[in-house]
Design goal:
This protein is of the alpha+beta class. It contains eight helices and 20 strands. It comes from Pigmentiphaga litoralis.
Length: 408
């Protein structure tokens, strides 16, 4: 009997019967397509402190004529912790040229919304389930670089989602896996059990690959800020990613995909000025994804030609959030506030505008949902004053996923 099926009639996901053969554990990483990755790098790495884990040059995939037309062809995998990448910036003119999908949704500037599942079996069985059900999958296989196994289903508005397992981890040396260690390219998940990453590394070493030849980020800026006891090059440390916020044509249709196909859980619905917005979660955080009607875009004064409302970066503390806002404004970055009602479960936050006009939400805490699945009643959420105090009272502030490792 196929072990992806449960005796109870559902699917077997690691010994637990579920409605799908996979369970999303968390929002893993996110990517955007930008006009000039080098300019964007100055914002995301230079100001926000994300480290380059690997560059990726799309030039060899382009014809001479295309290279002349599209401009810069190098993108970057960036990270805030040990995951090989938690954020990706790719050149939009290149991705539009190489991927026919983007021509069907020209206002989609997100490159990928990436969700981690629990095992390689869950990737393999999830991919098979999507195909068997006639659900659309753009591609599948394995990231090079990054090493994660994956498949990519788009949502009704064309936003590309990635379900993955097994992303490479970068340790204290800061070195990514050498390119020569990626011996094979996969166009779909493997049919059966695959060798462990430890064995892959042993095989690479036996083949003479220099394991110290991977990419290592170089910090060009002096470490001059005391960030809660650690000297860093900027007064903040990103310790988490998400939520993602999307403008969609039909909130109900988008919800069907994310809740029905991907299995995200409904947390809350908010109506603001007649617009209904829906918030879904992957784990215990109030929401990993917010869905907003596209009619809200102009009302909020956000970038008029992108369906990405915002992407979030969680900072390590409220103090860092205050310092980050002041630092970014001192560097000429526009910082916006959006109505608190549109980010339920999050009190203090600000939206920094990147060089392409994308709104990047900075925050330090998000409400956690317990066993009964109920969010905190709106009436019990603290209002955020126009002028932020130096110190706040919040006994729920540091609940949820904990950042592992030192600030660096």
């Amino acid at each position: 009997m196929d072990e992806s099926f449960s005796a109870t009639g559902g699917f077997n996901a690691g010994g637990v019967s579920r409605a799908r053969p996979f369970v999303i554990r968390r929002l893993g990483h996110f990517g955007i397509n930008v006009h000039d990755p080098e300019v964007s790098l100055g914002f995301y790495s230079g100001l926000l402190g994300l480290a380059i884990s690997d560059p990726l040059d799309f030039g060899p995939r382009l014809t001479d004529e295309q290279r002349q037309r599209v401009g810069p062809s190098r993108g970057y995998f960036l990270r805030h912790g040990t995951d090989h990448h938690s954020f990706v910036i790719f050149p939009k003119r290149v991705t539009d040229t190489l991927s026919p999908h983007y021509k069907t949704c020209p206002q989609n500037t997100s490159n990928q919304i990436t969700w981690q599942v629990g095992s390689l079996d869950e990737v393999r069985n999830g991919f098979a389930w999507f195909k068997a059900e006639g659900k659309r999958v753009l591609r599948a296989g394995r990231d090079i670089p990054g090493s994660n196994w994956h498949f990519y289903p788009p949502d009704p508005d064309g936003h590309i989602n990635e379900l993955f397992y097994g992303i490479e981890q970068i340790g204290w040396s800061g070195l990514s896996k050498p390119k020569a260690a990626h011996a094979l390219r996969y166009e779909q998940p493997p049919e059966g059990p695959h060798i462990s990453e430890r064995q892959e590394v042993d095989n690479a070493r036996a083949a003479g690959v220099d394991l110290a030849s991977g990419w290592r980020h170089s910090e060009p800026t002096e470490e001059r800020f005391d960030v809660e006891g650690v000297l860093l090059a900027r007064p903040l440390k990103i310790v988490g990613v998400g939520p993602v916020r999307l403008f969609v044509d039909d909130v109900n249709e988008a919800r069907k995909f994310y809740e029905g196909d991907l299995g995200l859980r409904f947390t809350e619905e908010v109506t603001w000025r007649g617009h209904t917005c829906v918030f879904l979660r992957a784990n215990t955080e109030h929401h990993s994804l917010g869905l907003y009607p596209i009619a809200l875009r102009d009302e909020l004064g956000l970038r008029p030609d992108s369906t990405l409302m915002s992407f979030g970066f969680r900072l390590a503390s409220y103090t860092q959030l205050r310092h980050a806002v002041a630092f970014l404004e001192s560097q000429g970055v526009a910082v916006k506030r959006l109505p608190q009602e549109l980010t339920p479960g999050m009190d203090y936050s600000a939206f920094a505008i990147d060089p392409d006009g994308h709104a990047i939400q900075l925050y330090f805490a998000i409400e956690q949902i317990g066993w009964d699945g109920r969010p905190r009643p709106a009436a019990l959420r603290q209002p955020v004053p126009d002028v932020w105090p130096d110190v706040i009272t919040d006994d729920q502030a540091y609940l949820g996923e904990t950042y592992l490792g030192p600030f660096n």
